[in-house]
């Protein structure tokens, strides 16, 4: 196996995706300081699972992500992938290639992949376990880390040796076994504790089970007697129900007659109502038609206004076009005048040129030869000129032939240009027309988009308003629910206090609890439970009653005696009882009451301020009938004096004036409500809780409604947004088409202009050719004339040579001047001809533009006529719509009057139906009362039947057949009371003790079996740990001895001599022993490692690394500047050893040293062409590479 490829993107300084393709052997990574070489080693360590940011030369995991540079933004993630060739199945997977990928995001999230499949970090650790690879393995030696193999404590040097021994997996398995053993021991302790507790519970639970079984026997007998009594009660209730049912049938007949009268009245009212609604529908139809007519009239008026605007636009365009026509006509006239002037001047110049040519001929002819030699020379010159003229004449004939051919070719081109111009003009016209249509549609789309945007804003407003209201309801719900939760908690507390009789004396609490369980009969409850007092009087009444609030109200004296007897038997305290059959009320004399009634501060008798069931009134008056309530202590003293201190007076603040004048008062530290206040507070809380629940329900309904509004607004906005997007897309497409048309039009115009320019150039060339033909023809004529004249003149000259010598010299000067003037005139004539052609071309273009404007004027006139015809038609339609609107308005008014009339009739009939409904309602009330009586009888019967089913689990018919009444009802009731007393005498009975005893016994048996399993598992885990320890010790010692031997050899090779050895600090304990390193370089004494030089320490550590690799080769090894402290000779030996070990291990060496580079098979260069961003350059080294230039 070897490392095949490294892919890095966004890791530290490698901002761009970088790929390092590796081969077996030695690969060197070189580059200047700070270029990012060591980031490659960090990337390999990181992808193999390194979690320590410190080992990655950072402070936090985010530091491994590219942080940006002066020219680049930071990236949001980094990713590193290692591709390993696994053809030899070194890794325990079935793939020939294995790719390990790690990715981290700036948010802190990490992802791991094996062959692009998501995995856990643990999976990567387990994959490389015992392979020599991994985050802590000896296969990656970081920058400056080589000496740490020697600097650490002896115990810390075990890591590479354990990796080489292949016991990492065993250590992992041992930790797992130890963890399971610890869990098993903890579970065993818990099981022992539970078993001990359960064993203690079994004995008392057996006693409770015996009592429960006796209780069940009594309960069964009591249930049979109660069932018999319940059968008798059901028979009585059934008879009462039959009588009530007959009364309901009679009232139902009366109610049916009233209902028939109501049906007749409602039928008449519904008929009138239907007629009214029909009229309303007609009004709505007419109203809708009227609105449609008005809208159609408005649309027609708008269309008419648009036509008028278009007519105004056409008029303005016609005026502008007429102005352009006038301007172009004026310019054409100026050009034609200038052209006429140019023609005249050309004629004048040509005439003058001919005159000067004649003068030149005359001067030349009249010249005399004054000197013979000069005339002889002139004759020779004329002879030469004669030859030249012959040659020029021949050249001019050839040029005329060539110009004729060129003119024919230009004529063909001119015809093609005219065809191309016509085609491009047609394309321009089509593009302009299409562009106009598209622009019109684009304007329409813009209007529709504005409407859609307006609708979106409207929906946004609705949604925001509803969302704000919905948020307010959420806040209100939170407030309500928090308040309800607090109230519910308080209410539950109060209920718990009441149910547990918290605050009551032990005796009172025992009596009330036993009464709840049915152990005591005739117990009505405590006085505090039976009375209700307004909050205003709570303190006063509680003060007046004092401990009497806990008095127990009973039906009879016998009930009180039975309760007292129970308290004695159970030694459960004392209680005060108030038997209703003997208790008497006590009240002030009427005269005393009248004497204080109406006085300031007198609030009333205490008994009158208490709300209580009449059954208990005598008990309340017994305690409070002679107690007065005053507003404050001062008024209480005044009342006491008025009554001569005969009665007890209590103030609202709880102060007391006792009979005889004794006063009690002061501050009372009330930590909570008393027994009266607790009941009142519970009732208030229940009422408030119901109100809050109703508020919550209405708020939830309002919230749901608002959510629906928000959802509907969002949906409407979504639809409007989609419509707007569709319009925008359509408009964008139209704009794109318009741009294409504009581009096509522009291209066509440019092409047309190019063709026009080419045609003009061709015309200019044709004009030049014609001019050249004229010039050449004229030159040929002149040459032929000159040839004839020169021949004649030459003969004359030769004849008159002697006579003309003197005249020839004199005339020569005049001839030269005339020739210059002739050349000047010819040049001026050529310029005039060119200007004449330019003016002609401009005039042609102006005529073409004027013709185009004429066509546009005709098109505009046609459109204006069509628009005026359409406007006339629209005006006629608008007038018709005005008439239709007036007629619709009149029909609408008539329909509204009919609606009012029918509405009045419907209301009258509705009154009749209302009276009939009142009659039916009265009869319904009577029927309801009869039905309620029947329902009550039915409910009582059903309740009795339900009690039969719920309490006894049987039907009435089955019970009547199985439990007949054998004696009298009184005898049966006495038997029931006896059974209840006997059962109550058992006291508190745990009926669940039977089942609980069985369940507990089963649990003890189950836990005992579980304990046996845990003990066996504990023993198995201990044996497994012993086996793992033995295997690890054997493997470690065997590997240590092999490394020990190889270390001595590697040390001698690297140091070229010397001695080295390894030893164990505790050989008797191979699993924890440390490892000592002893080194003696050549020529030195055996000394402590700390006394070695930096280079010697590094070389010693390398020897140890090579020894480990010799014993346990790894697939690849990363070395980061490990030879930095070595001199050149040692670097060479180190590099040669790399080549030796490269046969089995692939090396990736980050280096600056030349010797290491020379032994490398491949070279990667790391550069930083852009500041802060690393880049890679790879070179495959040949044997003959020049390292001096590398």
From TrEMBL:
Tell me which residues bind ATP. 32-39
A GO cellular component annotation here is:
chromosome
Q: What superkingdom does the record give?
A: Bacteria
Q: Which residues form a coiled coil?
A: 167-497, 675-751, 780-856, 969-1034
Occurrences of domain SMC hinge (ranges): 521-640
GO BP annotations listed: chromosome condensation; chromosome segregation; DNA replication; sister chromatid cohesion
| Gene3D superfamilies noted in UniProt | 1.20.1060.20, 3.30.70.1620, P-loop containing nucleotide triphosphate hydrolases
Where found in the cell?
Cytoplasm
Keywords per UniProt: ATP-binding, Coiled coil, Cytoplasm, DNA-binding, Nucleotide-binding
> For this UniProt entry, which segments traverse the membrane?
none
| GO molecular function term, any single one | ATP binding
Query: What is recorded about the protein's domains?
Result: Contains large globular domains required for ATP hydrolysis at each terminus and a third globular domain forming a flexible hinge near the middle of the molecule. These domains are separated by coiled-coil structures.
The UniProt family comment states: Belongs to the SMC family.
PANTHER family xref list? STRUCTURAL MAINTENANCE OF CHROMOSOMES PROTEIN 3
Subunit annotation:
Homodimer.
Q: What does this protein do?
A: Required for chromosome condensation and partitioning.
Protein name in the entry: Chromosome partition protein Smc
Which organism's genome codes for this protein?
Answer: Alicyclobacillus sacchari
Q: What taxonomic lineage is listed for the species of origin?
A: Bacteria, Bacillati, Bacillota, Bacilli, Bacillales
Q: Which gene encodes it?
A: smc
């Amino acid at each position: 196996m070897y490392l095949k490829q490294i892919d890095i993107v966004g890791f530290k300084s490698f901002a761009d995706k970088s790929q390092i393709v590796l081969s077996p052997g030695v690969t060197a990574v070189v580059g200047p300081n700070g270029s990012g070489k060591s980031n490659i080693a960090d990337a390999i360590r990181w992808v193999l699972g390194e979690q320590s940011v410190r080992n990655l030369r950072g402070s936090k995991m985010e530091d491994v992500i590219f942080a940006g540079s002066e020219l680049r933004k930071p990236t949001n993630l980094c990713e590193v992938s290692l591709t390993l060739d696994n053809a030899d199945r070194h890794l325990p997977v079935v793939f020939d290639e294995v790719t390990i990928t790690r990715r981290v995001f700036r948010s802190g999230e990490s992802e791991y992949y094996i062959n692009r499949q998501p995995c856990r970090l643990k999976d990567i650790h387990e994959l490389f376990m015992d392979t020599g690879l991994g985050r802590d393995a000896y296969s990656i030696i970081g920058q400056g880390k080589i000496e740490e193999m020697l600097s650490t404590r002896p115990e810390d040097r075990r890591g590479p040796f354990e990796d080489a021994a292949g016991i990492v997996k065993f250590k992992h398995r041992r930790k797992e076994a130890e963890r399971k053993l610890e869990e098993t021991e903890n579970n065993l302790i818990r099981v022992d504790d539970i078993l001990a507790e359960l064993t203690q519970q079994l004995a008392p639970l057996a006693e409770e089970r015996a009592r429960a079984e006796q209780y069940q026997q009594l309960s069964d007998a009591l249930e049979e007697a109660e069932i018999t009594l319940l059968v008798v009660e059901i028979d009585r209730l059934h008879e009462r129900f039959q009588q009530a049912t007959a009364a309901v049938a009679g009232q139902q007949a009366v109610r049916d007659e009233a209902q028939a009268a109501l049906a007749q009245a409602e039928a008449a009212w519904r008929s009138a109502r239907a007629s009214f609604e029909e009229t309303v529908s007609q009004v709505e139809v007419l109203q809708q038609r009227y609105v449609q007519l008005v809208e159609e009239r408005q649309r027609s008026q708008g269309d008419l206004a648009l036509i008028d605007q278009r007519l105004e636009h056409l008029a303005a365009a016609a005026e502008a076009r007429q102005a352009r026509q006038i301007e172009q006509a004026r310019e054409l006239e100026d050009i034609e005048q200038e052209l006429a002037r140019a023609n005249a001047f050309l004629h004048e110049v040509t005439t003058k040129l001919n005159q000067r040519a004649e003068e030149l001929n005359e001067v030349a002819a009249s010249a005399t030869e004054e000197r013979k030699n000069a005339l002889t020379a002139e004759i020779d010159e004329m002879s030469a000129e004669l030859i030249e003229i012959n040659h020029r004449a021949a050249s001019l004939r050839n040029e005329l032939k060539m110009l004729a051919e060129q003119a024919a070719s230009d004529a063909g081109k001119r015809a093609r240009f005219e065809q191309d111009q016509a085609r491009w003009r047609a394309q321009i016209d089509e593009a302009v027309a299409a562009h106009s249509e598209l622009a019109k549609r684009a304007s329409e789309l813009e209007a529709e988009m504005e409407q859609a945007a307006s609708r979106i804003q409207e929906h946004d407003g609705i949604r925001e308003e509803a969302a704000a209201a919905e948020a307010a309801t959420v806040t209100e719900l939170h407030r309500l629910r928090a308040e309800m939760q607090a109230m519910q908690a308080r209410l539950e507390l109060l209920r718990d206090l009441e149910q547990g009789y918290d605050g009551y004396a032990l005796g009172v609490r025992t009596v009330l609890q036993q009464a709840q369980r049915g152990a005591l009969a005739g117990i009505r409850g405590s006085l505090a439970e039976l009375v209700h007092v307004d909050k205003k009087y709570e303190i006063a009444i509680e003060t007046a009653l004092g401990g009497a609030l806990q008095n127990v109200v009973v039906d009879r004296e016998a009930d009180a005696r039975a309760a007292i007897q129970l308290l004695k038997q159970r030694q459960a305290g004392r209680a005060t009882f108030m038997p209703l059959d003997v208790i008497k009320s006590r009240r002030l004399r009427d005269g005393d009451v009248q004497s204080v009634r109406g006085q300031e501060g007198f609030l009333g008798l205490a008994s009158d301020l208490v709300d209580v069931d009449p059954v208990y009134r005598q008990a309340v008056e017994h305690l409070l009938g002679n107690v007065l309530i005053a507003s404050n202590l001062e008024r209480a003293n005044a009342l006491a004096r008025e009554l001569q201190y005969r009665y007890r007076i209590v103030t609202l603040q709880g102060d007391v004036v006792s009979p005889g004048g004794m006063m009690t008062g002061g501050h009372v530290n009330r930590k909570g409500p008393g027994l009266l206040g607790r009941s009142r507070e519970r009732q208030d809380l229940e009422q408030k809780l119901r109100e809050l629940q109703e508020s919550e329900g209405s708020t939830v309904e309002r919230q749901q409604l608002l959510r629906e509004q928000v959802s509907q607004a969002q949906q409407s906005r979504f639809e409007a947004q989609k419509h707007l997007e569709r319009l925008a897309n359509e408009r964008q497409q139209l704009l794109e088409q318009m741009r294409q048309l504009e581009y096509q039009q522009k291209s066509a115009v440019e092409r047309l202009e190019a063709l026009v320019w080419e045609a003009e150039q061709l015309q200019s060339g044709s004009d030049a050719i014609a001019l050249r033909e004229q010039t050449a023809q004229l030159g040929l004529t002149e040459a032929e004339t000159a040839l004839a004249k020169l021949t004649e003149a030459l003969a004359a000259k030769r004849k008159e040579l002697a006579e003309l010598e003197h005249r020839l010299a004199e005339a020569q000067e005049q001839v030269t001047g005339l020739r210059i003037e002739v050349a000047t005139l010819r040049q001026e004539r050529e310029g005039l001809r060119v200007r004449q052609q330019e003016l002609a071309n401009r005039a042609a273009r102006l005529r073409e533009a004027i013709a185009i404007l004429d066509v546009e004027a005709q098109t505009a006139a046609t459109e204006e006529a069509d628009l005026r015809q359409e406007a006339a038609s629209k005006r006629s339609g608008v007038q018709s719509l005005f008439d239709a609107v007036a007629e619709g308005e009149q029909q609408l008014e008539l329909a509204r009057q009919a609606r009012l009339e029918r509405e009045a009739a419907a209301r009258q009939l509705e009154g009749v139906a209302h009276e009939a409904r009142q009659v039916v309602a009265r009869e319904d009330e009577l029927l309801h009362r009869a039905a309620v009586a029947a329902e009550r009888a039915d409910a009582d019967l059903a309740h009795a039947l339900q009690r039969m089913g719920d309490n006894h689990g049987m039907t009435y018919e089955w019970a009547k057949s199985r439990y007949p009444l054998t004696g009298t009802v009184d005898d049966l009731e006495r038997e029931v009371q006896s059974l209840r007393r006997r059962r109550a005498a058992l006291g508190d009975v745990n009926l669940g003790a039977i089942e609980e005893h069985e369940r507990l016994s089963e649990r003890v048996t189950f836990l005992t079996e579980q304990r046996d399993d845990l003990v066996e598992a504990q023993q198995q885990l201990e044996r497994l740990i012993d086996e793992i320890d033995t295997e690890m010790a054997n493997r470690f010692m065997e590997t240590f001895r092999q490394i020990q031997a190889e270390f001595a050899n590697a040390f001698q090779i690297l140091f070229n001599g010397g001695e080295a050895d390894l030893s164990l600090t505790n050989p008797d304990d191979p699993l924890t022993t440390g490892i000592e390193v002893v080194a003696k370089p050549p020529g030195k004494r055996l000394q402590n490692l700390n006394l070695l030089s930096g280079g010697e320490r590094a070389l010693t550590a390398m020897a140890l690394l090579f020894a480990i690799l010799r014993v346990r080769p790894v697939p690849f090894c990363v070395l980061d500047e490990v030879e930095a402290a070595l001199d050149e000779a040692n670097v060479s030996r180190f590099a040669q050893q790399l080549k030796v070990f490269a046969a089995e291990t692939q090396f990736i060496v980050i280096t600056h040293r030349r010797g290491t580079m020379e032994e490398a098979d491949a070279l990667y260069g790391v550069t930083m062409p852009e500041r802060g961003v690393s880049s890679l350059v790879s070179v495959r080294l040949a044997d003959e590479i020049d390292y001096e230039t590398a």
